Amino acid sequence: MAKNGAGPGAVTGRRPIGLALAGGGPQGAVYEIGALHALEEALDGVRLHELDVYVGVSAGAFIGACLANGLSVPDLSRAVLRRGAGEHFFSPRTFVTPALSEWAVSSARVPRLFVQALRDLLRDPDDQTTMGSLSRLAEALPVAVFQNEPIRAYLARVFAAPGRTDDFRRLSRRLRVVATDLDSGQPALFGGPGLDHVPISQAVQASAALPGLYPPVEIEGRHYVDGVLLKTLHASVALDDGVGLVLCVNPIVPIDTARAVEQGVMRRGKLLDRGLPGILSQTFRTLVHSRLRAGFAKYGTAYADQDIVLLEPRRDDYRMFFTNIFSFRTRKSICEHAYAATRRDLLAGYDEIAPKLARHGLRLRRDVLEDGTRTMWSGLEPPRGRRGSDVARRLDRALDRVEERLASRDG
Q1: Looking at per-residue confidence, does 368 or 400 come out higher?
Q2: How many CB atoms lie within 10 A of CB 160?
Q3: Chain segment 142-151, per-residue pLDDT in tens
Q4: What pTM does this model have?
Q5: Cα separation of 124 and 168, whole Å?
């Protein structure tokens, strides 16, 4: 394979084009696939797996690494389906395998920490309260709920196929995977100078290690966690790399419940009714999105001769907010929803977006966006004639019906 740079199939005769993808967990990855499907379908002049620069954070690193490796948007769209997904199917176990080893290690520390807490209390009872002493037991809390080794193993397997690579240096296009160095709080730009020897699959594992959900990833004696701790999109990485246009997809947007009661989503429109998960989710989304907006406000001055197109859900997109982030029962509906919402937003913003794209040799097709007959899955049916395909399709349809009934019951 060629060294980093514009490879075979890349658009020529214009400044480089980049793609920056934010995080959002499995749900965010599925949303990004639907959004990218809608964008590519409406674009003339480029395919999204043939761009020049890819920048990914967390779930966006997962998708960006696949695109940089030549997997097309239709390939990724098929992976959301069970039927016809083949090697690329996103198995729930890839993302939600319990971190039993973390719990075991933490449990083993409890007796020692309890003895230390009791000793502190007995040595200085006037200065130590019982609860204060026992707070030492917090050190025994596990650092993660889920394993992230299956994520690395999945990508390593996918990238081992002919024509692909798990080596940044052998890619035909530039890929940057952003993580955070846990002990310094500084960004780590995997794929960049000094960190391009780290396997792509391991870099993605590190970038997606959201504290509390996944354990930090140790690489050469350093521990890395989710890159979203520093910035949401890291679009500036692509801009600094000299791209003329960067396409951005961000699934992480805070919700505005003003219309939630009207639409029958909430009883009284108060996130407090959703308990701690709802409060934490809104807090995280608000912090992440406010940083994104602040960063984009500066880009207009710092990168005046470069263009940015940002796609993200609307604040009243209740489907994105209230869908269980780890529910794969709804993966198809989320992907379809993202596809339809992105088509709608591209059409609504056509007069602003089309000229930006045109400056870089791309045409946004209004006729495609206005075509109401198009669906997410048009042309994505699985190959026919494979051994056992009829049985597999019948089984899959039955499983889909079960999923739909479970989803309706949960709703």
Answers
A1: 368
A2: 11
A3: 566 788 998 9
A4: 0.80
A5: 56
